[in-house]
């Protein structure tokens, strides 16, 4: 089991939530204020440790086999697994933007919102 911070399609109600195979949500949390947050082609969000914004997400207790067999294969090429800092100083796995995509024209900076659901509602 491992902690994973989800901030996009894997959250409750999202199109990738079923990839969690029923893993329990531990709560809604925020990241530490050290990230930039992007919309990638208005298809999915991506966080990158190069800013000062907090990101809203959900924390799950996920079996590593579910991560390996279901969640990672469903992620787009722009994202990779990394470790993020949470608001309380703790750490969790998360999907983060690969460095080579940081200057892509496909990115819209939504750091000022820090919330994928809120962004989709705009």
Features:
122 residues, mainly beta, five-stranded mixed beta sheet, three-stranded antiparallel beta sheet, 2 helices, 8 strands
Task: List the total number of helices.
Answer: 2
- Helical residue percent band: 10-25%
Give the CA-CA distance, first to last residue.
35 Å
The strand line-up of the biggest sheet is 2-5-1-7-6
The structure class reads mainly beta
Strand content: 35-45%
How many individual β-strands?
8
Give the radius of gyration.
13 Å
Averaging pLDDT over every residue, what do you get? 96
Q: What string, H for helix and E for strand, traces the elements in order?
A: EEEEEHEEEH
Low-pLDDT runs of 5+ residues are: none
The backbone outline, from C-alpha atoms, is globular
Biggest β-sheet strands, sense, barrel: 5 strands, mixed
Could you characterize the architecture of this molecule?
The protein has helices at 64-74, 116-121; strands at residues 2-6, 25-30, 35-40, 44-53, 56-62, 79-85, 91-97, 107-109. The chain has a 5-stranded mixed sheet with strand order 2-5-1-7-6. The model has no long low-confidence stretch (mean pLDDT 96). It has 122 residues and is mainly beta. The protein is 14% helix and 42% strand.
Please provide a brief summary of the model.
With 122 residues, the protein is mainly beta.
């Amino acid at each position: 089991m491992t902690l994973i911070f989800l901030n996009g399609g894997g959250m409750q109600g999202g199109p990738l939530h079923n990839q969690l195979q029923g893993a329990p949500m531990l709560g809604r949390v925020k990241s530490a204020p050290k990230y930039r947050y992007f919309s990638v082609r208005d298809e999915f969000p991506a966080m990158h440790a190069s800013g000062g914004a907090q990101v809203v997400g959900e924390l799950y207790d996920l079996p590593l086999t579910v991560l390996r067999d279901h969640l990672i294969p469903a992620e787009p090429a722009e994202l990779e697994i990394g470790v993020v800092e949470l608001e309380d100083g703790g750490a969790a796995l998360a999907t983060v933007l690969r460095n080579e995509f940081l200057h892509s024209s496909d990115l819209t900076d939504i750091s000022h919102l820090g919330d994928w659901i809120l962004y989709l509602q705009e």
